[in-house]
Design goal:
With 111 residues, the chain is mainly alpha-helical. 78% of the residues lie in helices and 5% in strands. The relative contact order is 0.19.
Length: 111
Amino acid sequence: MSLLVALVLNALALIITAYIVPGFKVDSFLTAVFAAIIIGLINTFIKPLLSFLTAPINMVSLGLFTFVINAAILYVVGLIIPGFLVESALSAVLAALVLAVVAVLLSSLVK
């Protein structure tokens, strides 16, 4: 059941982020759910490898390079999911930052 709650919260976080960040668009709640599923799968299977490979850069940047990795993931998901649009690299980085903050706020509200 908590997996379903996390999925809905991540979809809501994507929709809220789309309202805040220009150049980041989500057409519908169903699109946000599909995007949240794909983002979750990429975060589970591919992001650990990316984080390991970029660990030296991440250490030098004090962890800020993680936002670049998250932005790249959002951009790739935008290429995969129709109705989920990331227009530029700047939009992706801003969306990654806003999405992290919104997701933390939503999860703290639920707990």
